[in-house]
Amino acid sequence: MSDPINEMNKPFVVAVVGPTASGKTSLSIDLAERFNGEVIACDSRTVYKYMDIGTAKPTKDEQKGIPHHLLDVADPDHIYTVAEYQRQGSTALRDILDRGKLPIVCGGTGFYSRALLEGLSIPEVAPQDHLRSQLKELAEAEGTQAVFAKLQELDPKSAQKIMPNDLFRIVRALEVTITLGRPFSEVTKKVDVPFRVIWIGLNFEDRGVLKKRIEDRLTEQVNQGLVEESRFLYEKYGPTQPIMNAVTYKEMINYFNGIYSLEAAVDDCAKHNYQLARKQIMWFRANQDTVWFFVDKSKQIFPDVINHLEQIL
Question: Which residues span the domain enclosing 236?
Fold first, then answer.
């Protein structure tokens, strides 16, 4: 049991979470300006170099001079693991706190946020290419449910926490379980963290508004050069796992290969982004410490969040 007095002496970290296209990035930058903070990106796609437009990575102008950490830390042909994110993110957190600034962790990758902010101790297991290929072949032949059933058999605790259609997380849990000979849930433990987290969640009461924001942002991304960026990535790196796992790039590659028309690819991008948003909402709603602010209810999100934080910080 933690000591309440020691807990009160821990510094604060702010986490801004929620679905894609909810405005997390701009809010985090505004909060960093207001509270002398720095931003730590918490996104499994923006860690990759050159994946800019398709991931809605903030430009230098949009960053407004606020230091950003954990952007562009891996090449698109490298499988960046959650253990790597936890290690590099923890280093950034300590550095920001040591300099007397407020860390603001921003993003929609739930497992990254848990690893960094909830003290998950994650084993370092290198990607097992042969095993991954076998599991993906099983998914292609019999469906993702067949791979999920294997996880339920070998590690039922992890299966309760991972979405049945989240093939990437299912494969990773199986990879660790099979490689170490112990369930992923057993080798992934919680340890105490030297900070207190203020969880800020952005959400929508009207999911139609979220859909419209996703569609509008996608139109803007296409106008900014999404097709050209996707072609560059595909020609330079090929269909690597990081690229094919990122919504927007996979759909564009299907267009390049003649599977879809451009219009159909864009429609698929919108559909898959909305599916991603729903998964993100489900993940973060499980965290009872999150205080939710509804983007479509009020245009005063920033002042509302400011008022909330000023009562705590």
Answer: 4-122+188-310
Q: Give the mean model confidence (pLDDT) for residues 241-265.
A: 94
CB 182 within 8 A of CB 123: no
Check pLDDT > 80 for residue 91: yes
pTM, two decimal places? 0.87
Long-range Cβ contacts of 85-89 (<8 Å, 24+ apart): 85/44, 85/47, 85/112, 85/115, 85/116, 86/112, 86/115, 86/116, 86/120, 86/122, 89/40, 89/42, 89/115, 89/116
76's CB contacts (< 8 A; 6+ apart) are 48, 49, 50, 51, 233, 236, 237, 240, 242, 243
CATH number, domain with residue 149: 1.10.20.140
Number of domains in the chain: 2
Among 169, 187, 205, give the residue marking a domain's end.
187
> What is the DSSP code string of 13-33?
EEEEE-STTSSHHHHHHHHHH
Let me know whether 78 and 172 are in one domain.
no
Q: What is the pLDDT of residues 44-74, one digit of tens each?
A: 999 999 999 999 999 999 999 999 999 999 9
Q: Please indicate, yes or no, whether residues 82 and 194 belong to a single structural domain of this protein.
A: yes
Please write the tens of the pLDDT for every residue from 161-220: 787 877 878 998 999 999 999 998 888 877 789 999 999 999 999 999 999 999 999 999
Q: What are 163's two structure tokens?
A: 């979405």
If one counts every other C-beta atom within 10 angstroms of the C-beta of residue 216, the result is 12
Q: Which residues contact 23 (CB under 8 A, 6 or more apart)?
A: 202, 295, 301
Co-location of 175 and 214 in the same domain: no
Which of 152, 187, 222 terminates a domain? The answer is 187
E strands along the chain, which residues? 12-17, 37-41, 68-69, 102-106, 120-121, 189-190, 196-203, 291-294
Whole-number Cα distances in Å, 29 to 40, 90, 106, 267: 10, 20, 9, 30
Cα 231 to Cα 222: distance, rounded to the nearest angstrom: 12
